[in-house]
């Protein structure tokens, strides 16, 4: 028999860390926060406006061409999209141009990313539009988009009225009679102000961690479901149908039902225009993707389509002859700033939360993505501040909610953008349209704008092709994507976001409740222990079971931990103890009968050896390397485990615990008072624990009671017991 030598594990001495009192830490931070000095003021201002830092270092010859080129291209893309996305937001086209202008200026001053394009975003526009239409419906407005006045006077808040049930309808807002357009933009600006306030609060209180709960599969599924909703909402414009937007849940289902129910009322002029525009736009996108290496700049397909369609509509008099819906009058210049309506905000408090979260999540994630790609760093908290002020300040200038947009950001990156000077150039392009060219879009058909929106969704809708690959890579991620996408498309955007977040968290909890468990074996003569089911040529240590649980141990998976351990080692201590007690009771009865038969009463006491059924192992080593943390329930579970297995003469040892788990066990007095049993229960490696177990058991003399008990009971009766 191989002689077992007791090997002492290496002694690791923990560093003494003195934790400062919470009060003194708070006092120090407060003192540091209120300290005022000239360098601190300068640092705060330059941190708040990063443009002050990088603009003086601007390399004119090296950067200017790329910035001007990308800025002009983005500006050209912005103009038709700004007009088009107003269909989603439920406001007039002029407000999309305002939003694009102010957002680019503010982000130029406050953003830390060199490439992100902030402005109108289809998803944000959709979510704003749902709130706008809901509030207008509750206020009694007719949601038929053609039931409004046209011409310059519609932009006067006191004259904006619409026809409902044969009479003029308006509501009083901030002391003025507010018509349909006035009320819609008032809702949008109040909502945008709340979104900015929420984002500012998240930046001030460092709540950016909220975005970690928005997993990539969940965001992809949410964006795809929202894209399908956008497609559905815009489908009526392709056919020229005048049906109001559905309010409430199930927008996709109800809208498609209404479209097919009214398909006989389709406007053939709008339908033909839509087919032509979609064909041209898709062809332009395909050419761009196929020859992107040869084309130095993106094709301005959207602008060409808008210009051509506007000219065709104007000279062909499509509105008067065929009844097509057109954008209507778009004024030049700027409207006087106005304070958002605070009387509307109590009704919008909950609606603003998902917009705030999605807006900052997309902005921060895109900033970090392109910063990493181009080799520089961004400040996430400053990005939150920037996007919050991109919503707060423009809300005073008749703008709606903004966010970073992936498609335009990718265009900026691919066209040589170097700094946010490109955003300033884009704002100037939009300004030219605002000052001079806006009225020329009067005859632009709404179906053309819907085509631009729908074709821009190609990237998000293509995510359906990635589902099989996503499913093969991770079923959990695939299920999260499908559930989030389905809830967003079939119920509503807000509910889809909530369902996606909750379902993602439930999946994580489920994974911790059903983690992988394994018994470990030793690799040849090394001190490496790995999963016996996953690796070949491993040998289980003699009479020692090494068990690994790959999840945190807390209240929700305590039972799963115990059940998996009992199943792996094959012995449940309570059942084993019950069997032994039954065997002891039976052995006492048999011993008593034998004693009476032999006239010897002393044998009734010698039965201890019968209940000491020898197990296949004497020690369980818990490999805690995959347990990142545990709570008090986990501590109680470990304590109960040690005590229960001690009752059947099985030792439980711990190995590979991280310092957090060790500190938690110490606080719970798992190692006894003053950690007196730590050296005999805790080991730094599995091999050290196995050596300790074998060396300890080899020094325990075998009890002679088994021989005595066996000698006094006949062999046949012993076996039957």
Automatic annotation (TrEMBL):
Keywords: Membrane, Transmembrane, Transmembrane helix
Ranges in a coiled coil: none
Any one cellular-component term (Gene Ontology): membrane
Localisation per UniProt entry: Membrane
PROSITE patterns: SLC26A, STAS
Domain STAS: 534-693
GO-annotated molecular function: secondary active sulfate transmembrane transporter activity
Membrane association type: Multi-pass membrane protein
Classification via Pfam families: STAS, Sulfate_transp
NCBIfam families, sorted: sulP
Protein name per Swiss-Prot or TrEMBL: Solute carrier family 26 member 1
Record field: transmembrane: 63-85, 105-128, 182-201, 221-239, 348-366, 386-407, 419-437, 482-511
Lineage summary: Eukaryota, Metazoa, Chordata, Craniata, Vertebrata
